[in-house]
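To close the chapter, one final illustration. This time we ask the reader to focus less on the individual chains and more on the assembly as a whole: which components sit near each other, and how the overall shape emerges from the parts.
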Amino acid sequence: MHSSPAMERLVAALKHLPGIGEKSATRLAYFLLGTSDSLLRELSDAIARLKTDTAVCEVCFNLGDRSPCPICSDPRRDTSMICVVEEPADLASVEQSGAFRGLYHVLGGTLSPIDGMGPEALRIEELVARVAAGGVQEVILATNPNAEGDATAHYIADQLEKTEARLSRIAYGMPLGGDLEYADHVTVGRSLENRRDIR
Amino acid sequence: MDRLVSEVILMRAVDFGESDRIVHLLSPEVGRLTVIAKGARRSIKRFPGTLDLFNHLRVAVNRRRPGSMAMLEQATLLEPFLGLRVQSARYALASYLLELMDRMAPEGAARPDAQRLFGFVLSALRTLEGATPNARLRVLLELRAFDALGLRPELARCVRCGERPQGRVAFHVADGGVICGAHAGERSEGTLPVHVGTLKVLQQGLEYDYSRLGRLAFGPQALAEARQLLFRFQRFHVGIELRSERFLDESLGWAGLTPEST
Ligand SMILES: [Zn+2]
Ligand SMILES: [Zn+2]
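The assembled structure is written out below.
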């Protein structure tokens, strides 16, 4: 006997995780069997609380410990601006930049027909409703500058056709630390289009 | 051929592990080609701005490692098809055609087949970039896609007797071709009634240059028949449900077809 019903149960559960097959699941199970009780308790507790202690903000769909999230309930934020991002991780990036003091809207992905992701899979209707409710002067479409992100931004702009609010798209250009010699010609072209005065 | 240098169209890119991407390409040299782009997610210097959907690229691929996935060594952007991103119908139809090719184009295809497939995709994307796609263009490009895949329906001559059909005509789905009035009565099961005029437009759709496809005129009845015919033909001969079909139907403002509704 190389295993036990408890081991088999754990292996079967681990196999549901992305990128984990029978081999990796078994290796992880053996690792956990040999590890300290405190790590096991910490892991099982963290997993058990993951869903109960995580809230999706009912306004912007950011992840946090409560809803509305701390950003949406912060009275110092500028409620006339909404920055639309793909995922909570993108929101965190914009937040870390410190360059934006408005509110967010997390779409939950991008339009990707090939992956079966249509508009109904994203929080686009909710965004349109937020803007229609009034008080929004600018919507910044900050989806990633790739095919899916661009297509999603244009789709949203179409859905917001009737609004008076300004619709803007984050700028494209050379990345910091980039090199013109190695950049593709579209990036170089857009960097020139989006150039700024230096004095 | 250890090292392959080829122009390609990028049909799909999927994140893999922490820093890599797996990329599906269509090449006029070898057909469908799956490669791994090491470090593509981490390093902006490695493949800057190139590994994006619809991109027409020139790539160098290392296929020296037996039993493992070919490795992308270099990619240069030739044509980004940015116009496909700015209009939902273009994006939807281009995605739909690429999904079809990604799932149906053979890996390691013979050169003439690979060239035909690549030629179709490049022409279709160029056509779409300058078009406002509608249901007609969809039907015609779908037909050209089947043709490129080696699945050309017989629209001009009866598949039973070889005569040019006239009058009351049917399309036999399983046989993939038209049946003339004299033979249509034999077996109506698995056939669709279709007007000669509809077949004529579709035939022109196969023969015309891509630049003229948008100007092919056909009325609502011919369009409905053509769509039904291609839908049934696809389900029987290609046999896949495409994930992008729903968004495409929505984008073109046309309710989806189901086998039951036929
Ligand atoms: Zn919030
Ligand atoms: Zn006949």
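The first strand of chain B starts at residue 3 and ends at 16. The CA atoms of residues 78 and 233 of chain B lie 35 Å apart. With these observations in hand, you are ready for the problems at the end of the chapter.
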